[in-house]
User: Which sequence fits this backbone?
């Protein structure tokens, strides 16, 4: 059983996840036990199909493991109802997808405001969103729609959206995969800054070895197991 | 105040404002077409029923008609009765008719037809047979040997008038009228066609001419037809007529409808059946269009869930979007119907054997069909959005 400590932010205990496609069963995660301390910046690497995204989905409460437990801030969250998981995603976790995942009909500002509007007033949400957009260097493009932004800019908007409710944990699933080198460095510098200056715990998947230097720790998955 | 409750409206508004304009336009247009389809059939049937009712009123019975009281063959002293009727508040005009079963002979053709003796001046204030003359002219009060004949009697190449018609009698030709063994030649002064077969099987002579054939008959009537003023109700005037003590049976035009009433009832059944089928077709079409629109946003819905947006907000936003589609569709459909279709069919009515039918939009039908479209739309938005918010979030995000 996982024992909570003051500086442990995320932990998993023997989590297993498998998928079934027709008669074929794929075991994506095999008894993965992981500890991430508060303020760590973890990079997760591994070949395609090694289980990286599956692991992040479990940690980000987008999915549930078949067996094992997940702890966030010392609380067992594996079997929480969807309502409570949703509330945790809204208030405590930030999630950044590979493909930006912005709402096409909303401007950059409105995309960022959206999660904050769930828990506060529109004015508060707007003020916070503008501050965050300024922080990622997009204050002057706040009114632009996603289609009017470059890939790197869209990803920065997604980062700002993930930060709007001041989460202490940020998950990023290959956030630089679709970006050029300059945009990738911009995004990574933002992550580094969030981690170092605001002590946000970050778990990020990457395929790029040169990105590992931004992390405080590197873990590798192979065939669903931590290596 | 927390913005959560405003979020569905906010999202729906942004979907409308910034979504694909063509999708919005086509979906709204589809709603409009589905709505027009629903109200068109209903309005056409209403138009046919309304047209045939007007035929009864305008060519046969007026709004109200009086017949001899039970046990009598005639309404006696008809002029006195007419004067009394015309004094009733709400009565615009009244005309006495004397229906005589007679034999009409044309060349070597003869048949038994309904001959009505009228005062043409009075009659033209109640019925519009005088305006339906297709050849020749209407009767004058002093005509003594003139007759106007319905198209079903004169017959002709395109009449379909049947074996007993006169196979193309023309104005100026003579017909012989025989009543109770007394014969007299009349000249065909006019031929009328109302398209209402009950009327087109009649012939009219003046009461003066009847008086020569049947002395004394010109003071009697078998029917008195009454036209009421605009805005008056038949039942109110009937009550007033009863109150002044006229010795006759008094009926509203509906009671003479007979066959037309059963045709109207048949139309009602067909209308209900076609409306049901129309609503089903509209429902399925609208459902498919909105379903496809929302299914295309499956990934977006998954992402909204992933960032913590509550499912009810997502579902409500799509229900609002669908409701907007339907409201705009109904508005657009109504505009097209009232500004394009109705004037067009006023100018080019459907030519039917019983009447020329235009589109008549019934208020209750309109409201019921508008509601049907809106409910179908709301369900079309609700069901797919609810399905997607219940699918596994990752499946939605990853488009599985």
Assistant:
């Amino acid at each position: 059983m996982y024992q909570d400590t003051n500086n442990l932010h995320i932990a998993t205990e023997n989590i297993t996840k498998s998928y079934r496609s027709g008669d074929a069963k794929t075991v994506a995660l095999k008894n993965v036990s992981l500890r991430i301390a508060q303020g760590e910046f973890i990079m997760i690497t591994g070949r395609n199909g090694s289980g990286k995204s599956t692991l992040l989905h479990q940690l980000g409460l987008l999915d549930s493991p078949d067996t094992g437990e997940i702890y966030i801030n010392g609380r067992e969250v594996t079997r929480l109802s969807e309502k409570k998981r949703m509330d945790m995603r809204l208030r405590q976790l930030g999630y950044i997808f590979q493909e930006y995942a912005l709402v096409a009909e909303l401007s950059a500002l409105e995309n960022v405001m959206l999660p904050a509007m769930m828990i506060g007033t529109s004015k508060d949400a707007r003020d916070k969103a503008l501050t965050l957009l300024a922080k990622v260097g997009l204050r002057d493009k706040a009114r632009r729609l996603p289609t009017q932004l470059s890939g790197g800019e869209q990803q920065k908007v997604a980062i700002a959206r993930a930060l709007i409710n001041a989460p202490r944990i940020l998950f990023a699933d290959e956030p630089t995969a679709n970006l050029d080198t300059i945009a990738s460095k911009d995004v990574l510098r933002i992550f580094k800054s969030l981690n170092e200056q605001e002590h946000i715990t970050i778990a990020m998947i990457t395929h790029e070895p040169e990105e590992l230097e931004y992390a405080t720790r590197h873990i590798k998955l192979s065939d669903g197991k931590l290596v | 105040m927390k913005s959560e409750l405003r979020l569905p409206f906010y999202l729906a508004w942004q979907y409308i404002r910034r979504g694909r304009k063509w999708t919005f336009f086509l979906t709204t247009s589809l709603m409009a077409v589905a709505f027009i389809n629903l109200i068109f059939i209903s309005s056409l049937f209403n138009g046919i029923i309304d047209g045939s009712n007007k035929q009864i009123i305008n060519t046969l019975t007026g709004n109200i008609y009086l017949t001899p009281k039970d046990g009598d063959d005639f309404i006696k002293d008809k002029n006195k009765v007419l004067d009394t009727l015309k004094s009733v508040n709400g009565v615009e005009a009244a005309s006495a008719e004397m229906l005589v079963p007679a034999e009409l002979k044309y060349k070597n053709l003869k048949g038994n037809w309904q001959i009505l003796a009228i005062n043409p001046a009075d009659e033209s204030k109640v019925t519009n047979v005088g305006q339906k003359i297709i050849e020749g002219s209407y009767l004058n009060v002093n005509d003594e040997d003139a007759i106007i004949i319905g198209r079903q009697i004169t017959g002709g190449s395109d009449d379909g008038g049947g074996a007993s018609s006169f196979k193309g009698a023309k104005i100026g030709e003579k017909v012989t009228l025989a009543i109770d063994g007394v014969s007299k030649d009349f000249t065909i002064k006019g031929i009328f066609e109302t398209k209402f077969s009950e009327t087109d099987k009649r012939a009219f002579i003046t009461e003066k001419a009847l008086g020569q054939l049947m002395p004394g008959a010109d003071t009697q009537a078998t029917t008195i037809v009454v036209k009421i003023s605009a805005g008056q109700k038949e039942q109110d005037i009937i009550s007033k007529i009863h109150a002044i003590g006229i010795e006759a049976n008094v009926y509203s035009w509906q009671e003479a409808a007979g066959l037309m009433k059963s045709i109207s009832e048949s139309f009602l059944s067909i209308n209900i059946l076609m409306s049901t089928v129309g609503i089903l077709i509209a429902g399925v079409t609208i459902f498919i269009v909105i379903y496809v629109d929302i299914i295309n946003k499956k990934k977006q819905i998954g992402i909204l869930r992933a960032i913590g947006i509550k499912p009810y907000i997502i579902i409500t936003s799509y229900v609002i979007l669908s409701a907007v589609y339907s409201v705009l569709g109904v508005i657009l459909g109504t505009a097209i119907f009232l500004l394009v279709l109705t004037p067009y069919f006023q100018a080019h009515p459907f030519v039917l054997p019983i009447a020329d039918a235009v589109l008549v939009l019934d208020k209750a039908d309109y409201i019921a069909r508008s509601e049907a479209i809106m409910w179908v739309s709301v369900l079309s938005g609700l069901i797919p959005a609810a399905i997607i918010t219940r699918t596994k979030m990752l499946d939605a995000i990853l488009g599985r």
Notes: Chain A touches chain B at residues 57, 60, 62-63, 86-87, 89-91, 95, 97, 101, 103-106, 110, 114-115, 117-122, 125, 145, 161-162, 165 (CB under 8 Å). The CA atoms of residues 176 and 184 of chain A lie 5 Å apart. Residues 41-58+82-226 of chain A form a domain with the Rossmann fold fold (CATH 3.40.50.300).
